[in-house]
Amino acid sequence: MNRKAVLLLCILGIFLLILPKITNAYVLSVATLILFFAYTGQAWNVMMGFAGQLSLGHSLYVGVGAYAAAGLFFHYGVGPWAGLWLAIVLCVLLGMLIGFLAFRFSISGVYFALLTIAFAEFTRIGFDHIDWLGGPGGLFIKVAQRDKMDLLNFRGPPAMYYYAILALAAGAFILCFFLLRSRAGYYWQAIRENEEAAQALGINVFRWKMLAVAISSGLTAIAGVFYAFYYNNLFPEQIFHISRSIEIILGPIIGGVGTLFGPILGAAVLTLLADGITELLAAMGLEFPGIKQVFYGVVLLLVVMFLPHGIWPALAKRLGVAR
Predict the structure, then answer these.
(1) Beta carbons within 10 angstroms of residue 17's beta carbon
(2) What is the pLDDT of residue 61?
């Protein structure tokens, strides 16, 4: 990164650190949502932006991670820190199963995307019939929010959750920064640009794509655990639905696939504008079901037409900072 990029990152970091001190609860909840999608966008970006493997079923890992930790807490009182490891292991195994089936049998492109959707849908239907986890009626975590922080059980005020997701988003950014500049990052980019040429150069394409899937699914599992203990309720129809996957991938696509700042910028633009439109319509006494989905579609169309590489690459060029 050049000096401008480092300065921009420092300003952003300072602003995010002091945000809970200078704003109200509503703005803090919006900021938490932005950081959640920034984090999941970075996780998805490892698979698609770095390695070129299009997943449209990342809600699978959010849902399995959420239910794994929440189920242990609900039935056995096992804290989220122990459930976190189970969530990561389960999601990595699921991701590697999908990757093995796809890469071993040369399923790629749109067919790989369809395979990821199929696994997410199968899992959604399956969880609808698991009464132990609440079935279609949902799973509700027993412990309510507390005014004081209880880090052991991940209970506390909104500021605690904000700083938790901020730490996750910052950690994902740093991890992706080093991954992109590591041997794995260079191999992934070679595979993304031309898989046949990468294989001809001696790169073990199967191994490195599997690594990308494992890292991406494991990171997304952590987001699922956060989701469960932040919202305190889980419904298969919501958390496994394809719309959840679309929300995850729109940030990186609009911000800039394969870039570090793209998922952050995309998440901020989508969340702020969509929430602003919803609030504006509510203030006018109007109600349009599905307005967010329509807005997402319009923004995606405009970006594809006028900024095919995303908002951040064009903005970075204008600002003179690294992509």
Answers:
(1) 12
(2) 98
258-281 tens-digit pLDDT: 999 999 999 999 999 888 887 777
Classify residue 133 by its DSSP letter. Answer: G
More confident residue, 226 or 151: 226
In this prediction, residue 322 has a pLDDT band, given cuts at 50, 70 and 90, of low
Residue in the structure block whose two tokens are 């890469």: 103
User: What is the rounded distance in angstroms from the CA atom of residue 73 to the CA atom of residue 310?
Assistant: 40
Distance CA 191, CA 112 (A): 15
**At 58, is the secondary structure helix, strand, or coil?**
coil
Dihedrals φ, ψ of 320, to 5°?
75, 35
Q: Which two tokens stand for residue 251?
A: 């940030």
- Residue 234 phi/psi, 5° resolution? -135, 135
User: Domain 3-319 classified CATH 1.10.3470?
Assistant: yes
Backbone angles phi, psi at 235, to 5 degrees: -130, 125
CA angle 228, 234, 235 (to 5 degrees): 155
What is the Rg, in whole angstroms, of the alpha carbon atoms belonging to the chain?
A: 20
Intra-chain end-to-end CA distance of the chain, in Å:
8
Q: Which residues contact 197 (CB under 8 A, 6 or more apart)?
A: 190
Q: Give the Cα separation of 157 and 145 in Å (integer).
A: 7
At CB < 8 A and 24+ separation, what contacts does 141-149 make?
141/70, 141/73, 141/74, 141/228, 141/229, 141/232, 141/233, 142/74, 143/73, 144/232, 145/232
HEC readout, 263-309: HHHHHHHHHHHHHHHHHHHHHCCCCCCCHHHHHHHHHHHHHHHHCCC
For 53, other C-beta atoms within 10 Å of its C-beta total 25
Task: Give me the phi and psi of 140, to 5 degrees please.
Answer: -115, 120
